[in-house]
């Protein structure tokens, strides 16, 4: 029967249980601030998931996941900001302070909520497709690609900080009202907001899981194993890498939109290097080869930060860093590998199982 | 009739050293052509040039009358050229079955493969190739733990899964037992009905068994070309290659 950890039916069953558990949260939590906080964890989970797809499954380390997240967040913030502007007051206050007299071209599409939402997701996705396409075609890979994403992230950070009249500079954007979707107002502290994030997280997780199990997933796995060899089988390695990087970016962009819906705020801090690095840390601690492990990694680290971070204000980063080193040293595949090992022990005791029944190390995404 | 594969005046230099020097040859469709020559003659480099792994300094490669010189590797593979490497290259972290499945590359478009879970015709082809390669009992094994001989078989199996028109085999029987080599010879001869083969091999017994045409390379150039009898009778070939083989 093999290690249960690799059993596809068992994996799907765990997913169903996981999302069922997340689904009952709003029924149990009456504190709306807490619910809002849990919803933001869902956003972080989506980010960790996107990185798990790109890095854990695709083998592409991306230190600039904040680019797609941040662009999505800015797009959403611009849309929400424009929702609060009226005919008599057509341009956001910070622009007036920066002596702009009319709404800049860049902002005009965001007057329409539909167009704004489309742009918030499409612009970062398109960026990933173009940037990834150029990099992967030139066969930039491994640490070199990681450094390029970092450089790109810093470039975006600088531009957004610098173009104060268009972006709000260091203050960022703080749309005054909650997000209006048609006739609905999505109060960030309501269960509705939680459900939106829950829906996207669940959708993204199932979508990602399906991708890893498809023919595409098999080719991606082969590329991670030996990209050079895969070319001679007729697959465009650059094409596959670009697609996986872009899908990962798409999920991060959606996460960015959700995040602004919840916190009504965005600033260059979301495109800061340290934020993108923390996404990497979530996935590494949870287990980058496991989609669910990565999501849980984000929950655990961000949850701990919320509760312990206040108590150990100055030393929190030290604690996190120490924990990270311990995990990387003793559990290079993250906490999820504990589960794998536990099932492995179980399997060895099962006398009916054949030796190495599942080809040793098959589909790594849990 | 012109060849399925035509190499015209190919040259390749690494820095100052000329590794391939004005080399031309052709492989006729439905035949087995053996490319032989001493170590360092440039046989593997020629395969690198055919499959787009490296770009020639000058000269051209035609496949089915299309110029494929310096095209990207995946496009050349898609055009119908499959390759087994001299140092067997399989996907070591994946199972034997997954190796064969990936090699079954009728559909290469990433978008079409995104939500594809069953490949038409895969099962039959997989059974056929696994049986041929003697790997039926090893399908769930991780490819990295296979013996050298089994790895050779797996890579040959991968090339067969690709269903190419032209198969390039770089030292396919190295590490195989005599019985296995005999079986490989039979498989290659059967393949001739539907495909064309270019085989690099040092084992002259094997070459004698399968070759329709033998091409001898020496220091990056064509030394001789003909049937195995003509080659074995050739004075220059005896001097630079076969003599040395007999001594070894
Ligand atoms: N990347 C490279 N840079 C420099 N020289 C190279 C390179 N690749 C191959 N060579 C040289 O080209 C020559 C031909 O090498 P090649 O591997 O094609 O020989 P071969 O005929 O396949 O030999 P063998 O029978 O030993 O496999 C050798 O002298 C080798 O050292
Ligand atoms: Mg060689």
TrEMBL record, chain A:
Matches recorded under Pfam families: BPD_transp_2
Keyword line: Cell membrane, Membrane, Transmembrane, Transmembrane helix
* InterPro entries xrefs: ABC_transp_permease (IPR001851), ABC_transptr_urea_perm_UrtC (IPR017778), LivM-like (IPR043428)
The transmembrane residues are: 12-29, 41-61, 115-136, 143-161, 192-211, 232-262, 274-301, 313-331
Lyase keyword on record? no
Where is the protein situated, by its record's location annotation? Answer: Cell membrane
A single Gene Ontology molecular function, please?
branched-chain amino acid transmembrane transporter activity
Identify the GO cellular component terms for this protein: plasma membrane
How this chain sits in the membrane, per its record, is: Multi-pass membrane protein
> Main localization of the protein?
membrane
Signal sequence residues: none
The identity of this protein, by name, is Amino acid/amide ABC transporter membrane protein 2 (HAAT family)
Origin organism of this chain? Ancylobacter aquaticus
Automatic annotation (TrEMBL), chain B:
Q: Name one GO cellular component term.
A: plasma membrane
Q: Which InterPro entries match?
A: AAA+_ATPase, ABC_AA/LPS_Transport, ABC_transporter-like_ATP-bd, ABC_transptr_urea_ATP-bd_UrtD, P-loop_NTPase
Question: Which intervals hold domain ABC transporter?
Answer: 5-244
Lineage: superkingdom: Bacteria
Q: Name one GO molecular function term.
A: ATP hydrolysis activity
- Write the record's keywords in alphabetical order, separated by commas: ATP-binding, Nucleotide-binding, Transport
Q: Which SUPFAM superfamilies match?
A: P-loop containing nucleoside triphosphate hydrolases
Q: Which NCBIfam families match?
A: urea_trans_UrtD
| Name recorded for this polypeptide | Urea transport system ATP-binding protein
**Which organism was this protein described from?**
Ancylobacter aquaticus
């Amino acid at each position: 029967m093999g290690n249960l950890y690799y059993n596809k039916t068992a994996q799907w069953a765990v997913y169903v249980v996981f999302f069922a558990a997340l689904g009952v949260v709003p029924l149990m939590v009456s504190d709306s601030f807490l619910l809002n906080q849990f919803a933001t964890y869902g956003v972080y989970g989506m980010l960790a998931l996107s990185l798990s797809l790109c890095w854990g499954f695709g083998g592409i380390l991306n230190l600039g996941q904040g680019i797609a997240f941040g662009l999505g967040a800015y797009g959403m913030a611009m849309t929400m900001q424009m929702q609060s502007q009226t005919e008599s007051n057509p341009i956001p206050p910070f622009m007036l302070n920066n002596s702009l007299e009319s709404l800049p071209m860049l902002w005009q599409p965001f007057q329409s909520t539909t167009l704004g939402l489309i742009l918030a997701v499409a612009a970062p996705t398109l960026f990933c497709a173009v940037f990834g396409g150029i990099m992967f075609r030139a066969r930039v890979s491994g640490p070199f690609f990681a450094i390029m994403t970092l450089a790109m992230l810093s470039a975006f950070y600088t531009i957004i900080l610098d173009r104060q009249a268009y972006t709000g500079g260091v203050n960022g954007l703080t749309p005054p009202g909650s997000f209006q979707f048609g006739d609905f107002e999505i109060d960030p502290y309501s269960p509705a907001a939680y459900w939106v994030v829950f829906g996207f997280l669940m959708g993204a997780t199932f979508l990602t899981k399906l991708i890893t199990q498809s023919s595409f997933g098999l080719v991606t796995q082969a590329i991670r194993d030996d990209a050079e060899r895969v070319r001679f089988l007729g697959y465009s390695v650059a094409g596959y890498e670009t697609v996986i990087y872009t899908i990962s970016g798409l999920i991060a962009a959606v996460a960015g939109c959700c995040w602004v819906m919840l916190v009504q705020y965005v600033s260059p801090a979301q495109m800061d290097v340290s934020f993108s690095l923390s996404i990497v840390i979530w996935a590494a601690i949870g287990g980058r080869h496991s989609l669910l492990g990565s999501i849980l990694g984000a929950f655990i680290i961000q949850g701990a930060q919320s509760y312990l971070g206040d108590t150990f204000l100055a030393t929190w980063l030290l604690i996190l860093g120490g924990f990270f080193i311990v995990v990387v040293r003793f559990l290079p595949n993250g906490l999820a590998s504990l589960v794998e090992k536990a099932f492995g022990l179980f399997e060895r005791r099962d006398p009916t199982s054949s030796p190495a029944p599942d080809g040793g190390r098959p589909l790594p995404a849990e | 009739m012109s060849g399925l594969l035509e190499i015209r005046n190919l040259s390749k230099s690494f820095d100052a050293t000329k590794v391939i020097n004005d080399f031309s040859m052709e492989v006729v469709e439905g035949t087995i052509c053996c490319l032989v020559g001493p170590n360092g003659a440039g046989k593997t480099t020629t395969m690198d040039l055919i499959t787009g792994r490296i770009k020639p300094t000058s000269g051209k490669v035609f496949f089915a009358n299309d110029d494929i010189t310096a095209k990207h590797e995946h496009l050349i593979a898609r055009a119908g050229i499959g390759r087994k490497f001299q140092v067997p290259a399989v996907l070591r972290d994946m199972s034997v079955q997954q190796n064969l499945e990936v090699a079954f590359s009728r559909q290469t478009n990433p978008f079409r493969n995104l939500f594809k879970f069953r490949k038409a015709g895969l099962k039959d082809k997989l059974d056929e190739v696994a049986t041929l390669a003697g790997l039926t009992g090893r399908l769930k094994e991780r490819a990295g733990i296979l013996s050298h001989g089994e790895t050779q078989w797996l890579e040959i199996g991968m090339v067969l899964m690709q269903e190419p028109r032209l198969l390039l085999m770089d030292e396919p029987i190295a590490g195989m037992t005599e019985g296995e080599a005999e079986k490989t010879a039979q498989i290659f001869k059967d393949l001739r009905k539907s495909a064309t083969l270019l085989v690099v091999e040092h084992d002259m017994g094997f070459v004698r068994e399968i070759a329709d045409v033998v091409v001898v390379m020496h220091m990056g150039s064509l030394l001789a070309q003909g049937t195995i009898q003509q080659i074995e009778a050739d004075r220059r070939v005896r001097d630079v290659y076969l003599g040395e083989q007999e001594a070894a």
